[in-house]
Amino acid sequence: MNIPEGDTVEMDSVLFINDDGNVITGNPIIKGAKVRATSLGEFKGDKVTVFKYKSKVRYHRKRGHRQIYTTLLINKIIKPRGHTHGT
Prior knowledge:
0% helix; single chain
């Protein structure tokens, strides 16, 4: 997500909220709901090796890839106004 460590971010694309059994689902998102989170930094995932090979023509390609992930600490989940029970 390219967020510096320690910065806060607010996400408004919330798909699902579960508050002690009260479930709110979006279609596809919940309008008015937000999540505030703090970035704990980035790390690289496991290496994925992609190997392409064709027999009898001496063709082979080997490439690797490591995905970068961002760790987030959820500070607050803001429910939309008017939603006291699940829908």
